[in-house]
């Protein structure tokens, strides 16, 4: 019995090149040409070390901007340059139709189950953790976002719960993380097509803490993210964090005695620093105010709080700059 049947990516073998060149490459290339001013794969750190890590199977942990395109474009870039295609984790909340699930699983995506009770969530996490460890045991590369869902305010911080899931049933947390071979990746969009939708969600949650997104809201975000203008897009790769984990433990051997949550938080701090340092920082000219006003005009709400919404829109573009500057002041 296949214990991963309901979550694993389909093993299509020879069909992957077919889907690449007849489906993925043309579609993703067209959307890149129509909605961006160029997509660039770049490097932060020793490029030779990055390429060595990739050849031995890397776990690409990234910030999250677009529901579909973050993973898709990174996969395309890695396929073109290194002829690898990472397995990608996709939340089942995005499967508005059954055919969508089948399509993404044919394209090397595995399912991240969400929206269940506490007991079911624990069992789902155990299953997903075991599946990911199986893939890494076969030296397969993997893509996963650093948190569940996107950071609406662009304050990208790795959730401890993500690393906890990845290291379940391991006594030595640091060695379990090193076995994953985590290579942080920074994703920067000059403009976020969904910025006005995120600001709208923030006001809805502020006004009604019980408000929850509906399936059609996710579909709207997917469509807007794919079709919207993004400006320049940069994916910046970082070498494996394993040497830094070793250096941290050499300097602070007492960390091995900390509770697991605190151990994982120290690892999250390393990942976050690399993601923040890897941001592409775009100069914002005098027309940026006009851009914010144009996005504000797209928001439709009965009790529209323009001051709050404007603040949140500006905040989305300021947080990466703030975090980037802070990260450069941290000891490397």
Provide tags for this entry.
332 residues, alpha/beta, Glycerol-3-phosphate (1)-acyltransferase, 53% helix, 12% strand
Description of the structure:
With 332 residues, this protein is α/β, with parallel strands linked by helices. It has one domain: Glycerol-3-phosphate (1)-acyltransferase (3-Layer(aba) Sandwich). It is 53% helix and 12% strand. Strand 3, helix 4 and strand 4 form a beta-alpha-beta unit. Helix 8 (195-207) crosses helix 13 and helix 11 packs across helix 13. The longest helix is centred in the last third of the chain and has 24 residues, at 306-329.
Order of helices and strands: HEHEHEHEHEHHEHHEHHHH
Computed structural class: alpha/beta
Shape: globular
What does the average pLDDT come to? 90
* Alpha-carbon distance between the two ends: 47 Å
Rounded radius of gyration (Å): 20 Å
Share in β-strands: 5-15%
Largest sheet: 7 strands, mixed
CATH architectural grouping:
3-Layer(aba) Sandwich
Give the % helix: 40-55%
The strand order across the widest sheet is 1-7-6-2-5-3-4
Number of strands: 7
The CATH C-level name is Alpha Beta
Number of helices: 13
| CATH topology label | Glycerol-3-phosphate (1)-acyltransferase
Low-confidence stretches: none
Number of domains: 1
Write the layout of secondary structure elements.
Blueprint: H1 15-35, E1 36-43, H2 47-55, E2 59-62, H3 69-82, E3 87-91, H4 98-106, E4 109-112, H5 118-137, E5 142-145, H6 160-166, H7 173-180, E6 182-189, H8 195-207, H9 215-227, E7 231-237, H10 242-251, H11 260-277, H12 288-296, H13 306-329
């Amino acid at each position: 019995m296949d214990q991963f049947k309901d979550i694993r990516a389909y093993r299509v073998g020879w069909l992957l090149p077919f889907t690449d060149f007849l489906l993925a490459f043309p579609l993703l290339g067209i959307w890149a040409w129509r909605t961006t001013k160029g997509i660039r794969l770049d490097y932060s750190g020793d490029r030779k070390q990055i390429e060595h890590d990739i050849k031995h199977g890397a776990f690409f942990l990234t910030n999250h901007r677009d529901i579909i395109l973050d993973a898709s474009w990174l996969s395309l870039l890695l396929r073109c340059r290194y002829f690898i295609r990472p397995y990608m984790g996709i939340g089942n909340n995005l499967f508005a139709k059954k055919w969508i699930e089948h399509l993404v699983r044919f394209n090397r995506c595995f399912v991240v189950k969400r929206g269940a009770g506490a007991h079911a969530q624990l069992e789902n996490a155990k299953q997903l953790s075991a599946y990911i460890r199986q893939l890494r045991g076969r030296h397969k590369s993997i893509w996963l976002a650093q948190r569940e869902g996107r950071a609406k305010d662009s304050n990208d911080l790795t959730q401890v719960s993500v690393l906890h899931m990845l290291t379940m049933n391991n006594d030595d947390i640091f060695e379990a993380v090193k076995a994953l071979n985590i290579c942080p990746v920074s994703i920067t969009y000059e403009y976020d097509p969904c910025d006005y939708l995120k600001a709208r969600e923030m006001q809805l949650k502020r006004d009604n803490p019980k408000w929850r997104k509906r399936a059609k809201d996710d579909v709207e975000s997917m469509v807007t993210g794919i079709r919207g203008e993004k400006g320049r897009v940069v994916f910046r790769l970082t070498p494996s964090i394993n040497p830094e984990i070793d250096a941290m433990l050499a300097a602070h051997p007492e960390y091995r005695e900390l509770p697991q949550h605190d151990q994982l938080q120290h690892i999250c701090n390393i990942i976050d620093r690399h993601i923040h340092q890897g941001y592409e920082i775009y100069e914002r000219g005098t027309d940026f105010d006009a851009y914010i006003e144009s996005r504000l005009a797209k928001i439709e709400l009965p009790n529209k709080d323009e001051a709050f919404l404007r603040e949140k829109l500006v905040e989305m573009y300021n947080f990466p700059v703030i975090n980037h500057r802070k990260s450069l002041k941290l000891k490397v």
